[in-house]
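ok so I'm stuck.
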Amino acid sequence: MSNLLLTVFGPVLNLYHSSSVIPFLVFFAIFLLVVRNNKLPHFVRFAAMQSILLDICLMLAGLIISYLPMELQVRRARSLRHVTSLLPVLSRVRFARRCLRCKDAAAAPS
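replied:
not stuck anymore, here's the structure
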């Protein structure tokens, strides 16, 4: 499965990381075209903003880890990979629970 994903998304990832300007442009494109667009559903805008914030957190964590000694870099990178794979899942579950609570409150007779 991972080989299939790598063959499909590999060229796109190579293009994305080929220049330091491309991630900057993608950031502004997502922010201006998706997050600031009130015509899109709230969930889509929320997911886009969440991905932007997660990307910023990962960049900051990578920057901090790059200044650590090599032994700590390897250990921290392994634990960081586990945390970053869990964060989006937990945030989606939390958002879904909040949405369900709002729908239940709106559907309840007053």
